Amino acid sequence: MSSFQTRRDLFDLPEGITYLDGNSLGPLPKSAVERARATMAEEWGPMLITGWNKARWMDLPGRLGDRIGRLIGAPAGSTVVGDTLSIKVYQAVASAVEMRPGRKIVLSDNGNFPSDLYMADGLLKSLKQGHELKVVDPEAVAENITEDVAAVMLTHVDYRTGRVHDMKAITDKAHAAGAIMIWDLAHSAGALPVDLTGCNADIAVGCTYKYLNGGPGAPGFIHVRPDLIDQVRPALSGWLGHQAPFAFDLDYRPGEGISRMRVGTPPVIQMAVLDAALDAFDGVDMTDIRARSIELSEQFISEVETGCKDVELASPRDPQARGSQVSFRFHEGYAAMQALIARGIIGDFRAPDIMRFGFCPLYNTAEDVSHAAAVLCEIIATGEWDRPEFKQRKAVT
């Protein structure tokens, strides 16, 4: 595991800060600063519009897609980067519903990220064809996959508790019922091994600003299983998903392969930052990342529960059943988290009472874990959280 310590040096981690919120926003990779500078000063500046050809800006979505594909078990040419995760969810659900005409249910669970549910619900309502978004408890997903389900749409790792769905079992169940399987990998990509090919997943989407460290607002990605891609009609027919964008035809013809899932113009500077961030994963085996993540999270749970009896574990106790985060419930979780942040330990809060802590072996250490656990226990034991300034809700929690 010594390689993880050396990779910590790849990140700009502020002195005096213990950062356990990479599950929400990854820290700044040091190389990203120079990459952004070079993209602006050495490409955009002197090349101007010719940079689209000379600097291969137009190829970035596919090249980055392949780099992410390696981390999620997807073959080359099946993943593309661009737009936002919400846009990619919309594309995924629209394509799935169209591939299963006559079926009216999109099935999800109440542990799914709300934005995914909003996008699916809004799409189905706009179709006005009698479709329904059916939302059940995570444990009830499998029993609700019936032959009237067009698509099953789930977030692999629950954003609140870290609970992990059995990707292979649920995908197999969806396929047995004739449904399309959509996975959101926002809390999985870069955090734990994912094998989209081995699971035979149909469509997967995700973001790049969490464990992949692409920066605030970094673009999303979408994967489509290679044998399905020619069946997928892009509902969002953006010009860069066209077969010949610069022919400027008035009719839309889907591009070849995964390129048809492109929509808008690539955010070149942001993609350059993401490209630099992905360097941290070069030569890293995701099974090693996973093993170290479990060590750190198990250590955190043990030390918090030993030192503090007033919090309740909200994450699954079985490490194999949770992602790379640990969540604890506390009746004043928001205030306690603000007190932690004031002491230089950054996690985050999710309503109504969950304190979340993410563990990223590329830069988190056992020392980080022990320090965070000790301070959390002290804040709870002394009532340090019970101050007016810690209870004042901010725009982002």
Automatic annotation (TrEMBL):
<comment type="pathway">
    <text>Cofactor biosynthesis; NAD(+) biosynthesis; quinolinate from L-kynurenine: step 2/3.</text>
</comment>
<dbReference type="InterPro" id="IPR015421">
    <property type="entry name" value="PyrdxlP-dep_Trfase_major"/>
</dbReference>
<dbReference type="InterPro" id="IPR015424">
    <property type="entry name" value="PyrdxlP-dep_Trfase"/>
</dbReference>
<comment type="function">
    <text>Catalyzes the cleavage of L-kynurenine (L-Kyn) and L-3-hydroxykynurenine (L-3OHKyn) into anthranilic acid (AA) and 3-hydroxyanthranilic acid (3-OHAA), respectively.</text>
</comment>
<dbReference type="Pfam" id="PF01041">
    <property type="entry name" value="DegT_DnrJ_EryC1"/>
</dbReference>
<keyword id="KW-0663">Pyridoxal phosphate</keyword>
<dbReference type="InterPro" id="IPR015422">
    <property type="entry name" value="PyrdxlP-dep_Trfase_small"/>
</dbReference>
<dbReference type="Pfam" id="PF22580">
    <property type="entry name" value="KYNU_C"/>
</dbReference>
<protein>
    <recommendedName>
        <fullName>Kynureninase</fullName>
        <ecNumber>3.7.1.3</ecNumber>
    </recommendedName>
</protein>
<comment type="subunit">
    <text>Homodimer.</text>
</comment>
<comment type="similarity">
    <text>Belongs to the kynureninase family.</text>
</comment>
<comment type="similarity">
    <text>Belongs to the DegT/DnrJ/EryC1 family.</text>
</comment>
<keyword id="KW-0378">Hydrolase</keyword>
<dbReference type="GO" id="GO:0030429">
    <property type="term" value="F:kynureninase activity"/>
</dbReference>
<comment type="pathway">
    <text>Amino-acid degradation; L-kynurenine degradation; L-alanine and anthranilate from L-kynurenine: step 1/1.</text>
</comment>
<keyword id="KW-0662">Pyridine nucleotide biosynthesis</keyword>
<dbReference type="InterPro" id="IPR010111">
    <property type="entry name" value="Kynureninase"/>
</dbReference>
<dbReference type="InterPro" id="IPR000653">
    <property type="entry name" value="DegT/StrS_aminotransferase"/>
</dbReference>
